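Retro notes - structure team

What went well: the batch runner handled both jobs without manual restarts.
What didn't: labels got mixed up in the shared folder, which is why I'm recording both outputs here explicitly, each with its sequence directly above its C-alpha cells.

Job 1
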Amino acid sequence: MEQVLVYPYSKEYEMVIKSRKSAEVNLTRVVSPRGWGLSGGILDNSGERVEIEHDFEEALKACTMVWFVEDGLLRLPIELLLEKLLLTVRNKKKIYYTRCKNAEEREMVEKLLPPRLNAENDYETEVNFTVPGGEYHTLYEFKTPVINVIGLSENADKYKMQLLLKEEFTKLGYKVSVVSSRRDSGIFGMHSMPGFMWGGSISVTDKILQFNHYIKAIEKAEGPELIILGIPGGAFPRNEYRHQYFGEFHFEISRAVSCDCALLCSSFSEYPVSYFEEAEQRIRQMYDMEVGFHTISDKMYDCRDKVTADGTGTYLSVESGMVSDSIREWKKAKENLYDTVSEDETKRLVDDIINRLS
C-alpha cells in the first residue's frame, strides 16, 4: 500500500485525515506550509495521532507518493508549489495531483509531471454511463434510496459530511455508493463528479441525461443499498459577484436524479431560527428537494472580503465551541439540526436518515 504525504495540508482536509482508515492508501504524513498557523496533531477516527509537519523534504523520505491537494482558506504561492513538485519528481515519488480549481496552474503542472509518476488514474473509477439496452433519451428511475448533500454556500463542509456518512453507514453494514462533490474522492473509493458535468462542451439537456445514465450505471454495477450524491457549488448566488456556479449543478442533478431527501450544509453565521425553514422552502421551490437534515460548518463568510479573480470569496475559521453553542440554541426550535463534532450527534443523524428512508 502506498505511503502518502498530504500537501499542502489545511483545516479543510482534517476530515480526510480523520477518515484515513477508509482510504485505499496509507495517509501517513501531513505537511502544512510554514506561516499557515497549523501545528500539533490530528486524532483519526481510530484514535491514532497524525502530526502536522512543516519540513516537506524530511517527510518525503518516508513516503512513496505525494497527494497535492486543493488550498484551504489560504492560497499556496505557485513558486512554492512548483518547488515541492520538482522535489517530488527528483526523488521519483508518485504524484496524485487533484488541484483542479486553477486551470492555468494545472496546465503548467501537467507539463512538468512525468507520465510514469502520475498516479491520478490509479484512483479514478471508470464508469460506462451507457445503460445496456437503454435509450439515450430515456430518464431512468432508481430503486435505491438517494440522499443529496447540498450547500446554500461553498465551504459548508459538504465533503466532510459525504466522508462521514459513507464511513458510518459502512460501519453499520450498508453498501453505499457515493458520487462526490469534489474531484479528489477516488482515494476513498468514491466516484468523482464526472468530467462532462464541469465542461461546456455539451448542452444542459445532455448533461442531465448523461448524469442520470451515469448514476443508473453505478446502481446496476454496484448494487448499493444507499446512493449519496454530493453536489458542487452553492445552491444560490450569494451576491452579484459571488455566483457559486449560480446553482447550475443543483438544477442539473435535481433534474437527473430524484432524491428521497437532502442534507443541507451551511457555513456559520448568526442565523435567526427562521433561516432553516426559509432555506428548506427555497430549496423545495427551486429544486424540488425535501431538506430533511441540517449541519453547520466552522467556517464563516468574510463579508469584508474584496472581489477575487475566481469569484469564490474568502471564509474565516470559527472556533468549534462557538458553533456548538449556537447549534444548541437553534436545536430548541429545530430538531433536525446536528452538531457533527459530537459522535453521539453523528449517530443521531445516521439513525434519523435510516428512519426517514425506511
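Job 2
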Amino acid sequence: MHRVLCARRLSRLLALLVASVTVTGALGQHVVVSSEGPLHSIGAAIRQAQPGDSILVLKGVYNEPTILVDKAVTIIGKDFPVLDGKGENQIMTVVADSVTIQGLEFRNVGVTFVEDRAALKIDGAAFCRVEDNRIIDAYFGIYLARTSFCRLSGNTIQGSGLTETRSGNGIHLWYSKEIEIVSNEIRGHRDGIYFEFVEDSAVIDNISESNLRYGLHFMFSDRCTYHSNVFRANDAGVAVMYSENVEMVGNRFEHNWGSAVFGLLLKDITDSIIDDNVFVKNTIGIYAEGANRNVFEHNDFIENGWAVKIMANAQDNWFTHNNFIDNTFDVATNSRHHSSRFSKNHWDAYQGYDLDRDGYGDIPFHPVRLFSLIVERTETSILLLRSLFIQVLDAVEHTLPSLTPDTLADEMPVMVRL
C-alpha cells in the first residue's frame, strides 16, 4: 500500500548487514573506560584499540578534546555516560568505516558561525551506526558529510537555540547516499532533519517537533523515502525543494500554525508520490509551487486553514481518493487555468446528490471558493470570513459557478468518507 521502494530498501538492509558482520564478527578485544579507572579517556582508548575492538564507556562525565574515531570500533555507553563539550568544541568526529556509537549522552556543543560544529560528525565514512544516544544542547546534533550506507536510529536530540542563526540542525546530511534515519526524536533545533544533495535514503518513524524552522527540510535530494513520521508544531512546517522521485507516505503533519507556515511546502518537485498522509490543523496543509507530475492520494486534510494551495505553475498533478474535512478552504489557487486534476475525492462541503447510487455525486464539485480568490489577491479580506456577505457570495457561486476555475473541479466526488 505504501509504495516503498523495495529494491532500494533491500539493498540498504543488505549493506548494513554486511557492515554489522564486519564489526561484530571479528574476534575483537574489549576496552573499558571509566572516569575513575586507569583508562579514563575515550580518545586514549581508541588509540589503544585495534580495528574490530569494542570500547565500553562506564557511567561518568568525560571532558576531552574532540574525540577522533579513525578505526572500525564499537563504542558503547553503560548508563549513558556524558561526553561534555563544555560549550567549546565538537565532541566526536568519525572518519573510519564500520563504526558503531551507542548509548552515549553528548552535551554542550557551543555555537560557532565559522564551522558546522556538531555533537557527532561522520565525515567521509561508510557503514556506520549511531543508535540509542542522547544529544542535549548541541549546535548541530548528528552531522553526516560524504557518507554512505549508515543508519541513525533511536536517538533523542534536544536543542536549546532561541533563534535560527544560533541553532544548527538536529540531523544534518550533506552529499550522502543510502542513509537510514529511523525512530529518532528531534526537538528545539533550526531544522529537525535537513538533507542537501542526498540520494536513495529513507526517513522512517521519526518525531520532529517544536523546531525553530522546519521539521524536515530537504533540497536537491532525489529518490528518497519519508515514511510514518510525525512533523508537529514546527515554526514553518516541512519544506521539500528541487527534488524528484520522492515518496512521502504515511506521515502526520500537525499543528504547524503561523502567517507563513505549511504542513508541507512543495517547490519544484517532480514525479513524486504523496500518499496516505494526515494533514491536521495546519495553516496550509499542502502548498505546491512549480510542483509537476505528482500524485496525491489517500490523504486526510482535516481542520486546516487551507487544505491545498496549488499555484498556476504547478502542472499535471493528480489528486484522488483524498478526504477534505472541516477545512476553512479546501483548495485555493492564484489562477483560473490549471492542468492539475481532482477526481474521486470526498468533500464534506459537497451538497450534491447521488440519484443512481453508485457512490459518486451526480454533479461536479468546485472546491475553489470565490472568496478564496479574493483572499489570494487581498489578504486582509479574510476578516470578512464569517460575515453575511461571504455567506451570500458562497451561495451565489454554488448556484452559478462562473468565476472559480472550471479545470479545478472534481467530476466524481465521493459521497462518503474514504
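One thing worth noting from job 2: The chain has two domains: 1-235, 265-418.
We'll revisit the folder naming next retro.
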